Amino acid sequence: MTIRRPSRRMSHLLGGALIIVIGLAGQPAQAAPQHGAQPLAAAFDRAAAGSDVPRDLLAALGYAETRLDGHGGEPSASGGYGVMHLTSNPKVRTLDEAARRTRLDRAELRTRDAANVAGAAAVLRSYADAAGLTAAQRDDVNQWYGPIARYGGSADAATARLYADSVYDLLARGFIATTAGGEVSVDGRPVAPRRGRYADVAPLGTGDFGTLSTDYGPAAWVPANSSNYTVSSRESAYPINYIVIHTMQGSYAGSISWFQNAAAGTSAHYLLRSSDGAVTQMVRDKDIAWHAGNWTYNTQSIGIEHEGYVDNASWYTDAMYRSSAALTRYLCDKYGIPKTRNNIIGHNQVPGATHTDPGSNWNWTYYMQLVTGGTTPPPTAWSTIVDNTTAGRFTASANWSTSTYSAQRYGADYRYANPVAASDTAWYKVNIPATATYRVEVWYPAVVGYNTSTPYIVATTSGNQTVSVNQTANGGAWRSLGTFTLAAGDANKVGVSRWSGSTGYVIADAIRVTRV
């Protein structure tokens, strides 16, 4: 069946019924989703075709927001609904936009997966139209960066970039989601998003915007809107006696954006990302975040939000548990908070609480073992960078040449080589202090014509793991390969292989390893 471009007369054979749709001027035509159970994968296929939106990009957007879990139509903390997080709050109104463009009832958009996906596709297409994307450009997934950033709803450019980057990272890695509506999968592929006006925006944790927290070294500092917390002078004004554990009921980037919104009326001191345990601080320890729903507890506690939803255990990754426990341990030591369940509590334990987070899927036994189970210092105590010029720490054959071509390089220069059907690995030697979980990040200059699938090798306790990186994009900053269990000892831990199926130079510049 041939699907014509939107704004023309289109026919869709859906569930055995032929539906004729007339496109309205200035907006894509939409086929009304049919009643009855429809596999979620088919809903993405249908919505993508109907709005001329890349199907895998649409699915990655939903996975970044909710892991494709509609949560029974219940709203997120920021008022987002369904697998695509169609939102209705004073600043973001994608739910209203979806209702206007699809002519579907708001209740249906909130509660039915197929309608929710169709609504998000219509909104995303309208953003593409506003950005001036042509039909040919709409076929290129890399051209959609601006519309994706706009969908996230943040007025802050750095947060909008964080949001869009997370979607494109998922698109690059690929994923398989098992949902109530069936399995949805996206194959990984090289991506080189056209960031446009976001290209010069420093990602969180780098540059002038994302400065590191002065309260906790590994955290990026991103201030919440001043309307969402109370300036104070703790501990002189109030003692800090508690750590309160929360689940965001939303995504990491979305929650950062929400706390920057003056209409939120809520905040937390720290937020943690599910995938790698990254930490962002939004309220200083000395100030009073509005997180507990109880003023006394607000004045005496530090609130820690964790990415995810209480009814989906998959968000609670080991990387996030370990990073959060390290933060809690550090705060307890800093402020003299006993490391007990009387002082490290869930939001649901606050007197008068109406919230249930962190919920039954939060593993308190494991978390407290991580907090109290040893004398391991927090991540501030161990992190190391190895550059290609670090004496005694980098080895490469004579096939690897040296360049200063790109200003995005780390340090004085970097190494490059042509891809071949042989490993010829350039190795970084790292002295790991203890067998534990570490975040491995890489730095490289991104140049058009470099390799789109450079293999990075990480030597873990369970064998070498390979992560392919597109070195034509996202350069000049630390890019996470993920978290890995690394064995104690001084040895080659991270390598760059020449064995790539893609053309263009493979680059070896610098790596950073941080205990989490």
TrEMBL record:
Its EC number is 3.5.1.28. SMART domains: Ami_2. SUPFAM superfamilies: N-acetylmuramoyl-L-alanine amidase-like. It holds the Pfam family Golvesin_C. This is N-acetylmuramoyl-L-alanine amidase. Gene3D superfamilies: Galactose-binding domain-like, Peptidoglycan recognition protein-like. It comes from Micromonospora tulbaghiae. The keyword Ribosomal protein does not apply. Residues 229-359 form the N-acetylmuramoyl-L-alanine amidase domain. InterPro entries: Amidase/PGRP_sf, Amidase_domain, CBD-like_Golvesin-Xly, NAMLAA_amidase_2. It catalyses: Hydrolyzes the link between N-acetylmuramoyl residues and L-amino acid residues in certain cell-wall glycopeptides. Keywords: Cell wall biogenesis/degradation, Hydrolase, Signal. Residues 1-31 form the signal peptide. The keyword Hydrolase applies.
